[in-house]
Amino acid sequence: MLRFVIEREIPSVGSFDRDQLRGASGASNGALAKLAPRVQWEHSYVAGDKTFCIYLAENEAAIHEHAELSGFPANNITPISSIIDPTTAN
Question: Which long-range contacts (CB under 8 A, 24 or more apart) does 73-76 make?
Answer without folding.
Answer: 73/8, 73/9, 73/10, 74/6, 74/7, 74/8, 75/7, 75/8, 75/9, 76/5, 76/6, 76/7
